[in-house]
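*** Fold description ***
***
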Amino acid sequence: MEKSEKKVKVPKEVFKLSIQNIVATTSLKKDVPLVKLAKSNANTEYNPEQFPGLVLRIKKPKSAVLVFSSGNLVCTGTKSVVQVKEVIQNVIKQLKKIGVKVTEKPKITVQNIVASGFIDINLNLNQLALLLKNTEYEPEQFPGLVYKLIEPTATFLLFSNGKLVCTGTKNRQQLDEAIKQLLKNTKEVLG
């Protein structure tokens, strides 16, 4: 979490939430010889006829990085920004072994956080679908309700037992704000 972000107070007894995945991007500002990287590393998948990027699997922290010849990277599978930084440093070390020297510190941008959790509220999904704006609910096809928040931007999958998945936020503050807004909105319509 950035130092400039202020904490949003949400009563912890109301929900439990954990980050499952962070998707982050960066640019190394160096061209990367993907064929050379694929040959030097067993934990890669590279099929340029099907996809222009190379998939580099990192064991610790467990993650996958899409590496493009332009030096752009997409990191997935981590659970914190600290882990994202570790993974990017790991990629830079592997590139150094094949002669690619990264001289600038990469600027990492979080694109999406996926979190899952539980809120201690019985959710009547039929009622929520009728009373909340920006919902999709087709129980014959999927048992969860999709609820899109506009401010802050977030999308929730809500289940009647209180389980939820949240996606679309870019930092912990937005995630906490989205949960706070979800709780406020559901309590308003469910009473």
Summary: The first helix runs from residue 34 to 40. The CA atoms of residues 99 and 141 lie 51 Å apart. Confidence is low (pLDDT under 50) at residues 1-13.
